[in-house]
Amino acid sequence: MSAEYFETPIALVVFNRPETTKKVLQAIRTVKPKQLFIIADAPREDSEQDIINCSATKKVIEDGVDWDCQLHKIYAQKNLGCGRGPSSGITKVFEKVDKCIILEDDCLPERSFFFFCEELLNKYYSDSRIMMISGNHHLFKKYSFDYDYFFSRHTQTWGWATWKRAWDLYDYEMSLWPEVKKSKWLDRILGDKLSVRYWEKLFDKCYYEKSRDYWDFQWTFTCWSQNGLNIIPDKNLVTNIGFGESSGTHFSDITSPFANLPTYAMSFPLKHPTTFIQNLEADRQIQKDVYGHISFMQRVKRKLRSILK
């Protein structure tokens, strides 16, 4: 953990929030990755404020990357939106590297997050059962874990990592959804009617809406369609600092229980699970807390759609 430069590539997704971008970049600077990718969408055509803020955000990058590294700038020439923008940028990242840690401009990591991801990216590099590693722990009910992480169906992407082998399976259009929906596949994955109803409606929106303002639910579909599991730490390693920001394309409710959650340092060496089993109890709680009836994520997407209309 004391190496001068960090070996694992890191990608930072930015847009029009220079202040939060600066904080996240400062966190990345503490490990000085040898390879840093910046994924930046272009300003919206009808927004002068976007032009100002996007320019200021890129200036933060120019001033803040002051260590010797390969800096890859994936800058869109026109506005792609908060669905196509991040996902197409991540695809370009994996044209160059085979594993990567991914942060957005409002996802502030605790330093040990980077080493947690790096160790597990290496450990599960060739294990197709694992699709991603998350830095989020959004369980409000206290659980006693015997290990430093558990296996989950849920894909929490406020600070995460994955491999080219997994991302190559990503389909933004979700072309298989109509066929998969008919097969009652979600019933087997989720096991309860309320959860199935929730995700069916959500996947229908992802498939049928021409203007998609999200990319992460398609990633969930990808992981589930591969019968893949994801790694969740036993403590929260990344906090979202974007709530209440005035720049526009995000959820503005600063009172959300998910806003500015505390982070905790991960201890090393990691205690790895001795069996490869989905934690069903934890997953049921995540479904209830994060994706339940009129859940937090549902309110986020409604807010995004109202802002971008």
E-strand count: 10
* Name given to the CATH architecture: Alpha-Beta Complex
Count of domain modules: 1
Counting helices, strands and paired strands, the structural category is: alpha/beta
Here the CATH topology equals: Spore Coat Polysaccharide Biosynthesis Protein SpsA, Chain A
What is the CATH level 1 assignment? Answer: Alpha Beta
Order of secondary-structure elements? EHEHEHEEHEEEHHHHHEEHH
- Computed over alpha carbons, the radius of gyration is 19 Å
Read across the widest sheet, the strand sequence of neighbours is 3-2-1-4-8-6-9-7
Query: Which superfamily, in CATH terms, is the homologous superfamily?
Result: Spore Coat Polysaccharide Biosynthesis Protein SpsA, Chain A
For the sheet with most strands, the description reads: 8 strands, mixed
What is the share of helical residues? 25-40%
Q: What is the first-to-last residue Cα distance?
A: 46 Å
Shape by Cα distribution: globular
Assess the beta-strand content as a share of residues.
Answer: 15-25%
**If helices are DSSP runs of H or I spanning 4 or more residues, what is the number of helices?**
11
Low-confidence stretches: none
**pLDDT averaged residue by residue:** 91
Features:
309 residues, alpha/beta, Spore Coat Polysaccharide Biosynthesis Protein SpsA, Chain A, eight-stranded mixed β-sheet, two-stranded antiparallel sheet
